[in-house]
Amino acid sequence: MPPLDTREVWLRGPLPDVPALVQPVAHALLQAREEVNALLQDFPENLLWKRPLDRSNVALASVGFHLQHLTGVLDRLLTYARGETLSPNQLTALAAEGKPTEPFPSIQELIDRFDEQVDLALAQLRITNEQTLTEVRGVGRAQLPSTVIGLLVHSAEHTMRHVGQLSVTTRLITD
Fold this sequence. Notes:
Number of strands: 2
Strand order of the largest sheet: 1-2
CATH superfamily: dinb family like domain
CATH topology: Four Helix Bundle (Hemerythrin (Met), subunit A)
Helix content: 40-55%
Structural class: mainly alpha
Low-confidence stretches: none
Number of domains: 1
Strand content: under 5%
CATH class: Mainly Alpha
Radius of gyration: 17 Å
């Protein structure tokens, strides 16, 4: 049997203090963090904002965008799950996603921000009352209907989707 720390997070067992119904969300977010850190170990700093396949008005998002978006969307979805609206700082961060602005954050700074956001998400999951999971929550300015569990699951699903895109992007621009 492989050592516990080499298995995917969901195969390592339940996480302490995380309610049973949100364990899969926590597992996915921890898996995403591990994959992001592994993917970007020794990633060339000069390629952070490079957009692969940048031709004829077709380009994939940069590694920098994915790192900003991973952090931002997780923050926004968890805000909605708490029943809150986005703050002016969150709206500013959303508008800046994918736009390298000075001072340029390093890859490690962007990874650290994502890691911190995962920690905040885990803290929120730990205090989530399972009785609230089916409560309706509004999303965005239009307050589109979702639920607490819908937002939490989507935060994990969306995060993993971008980790997959990040994996492809890193391979395309470093090969």
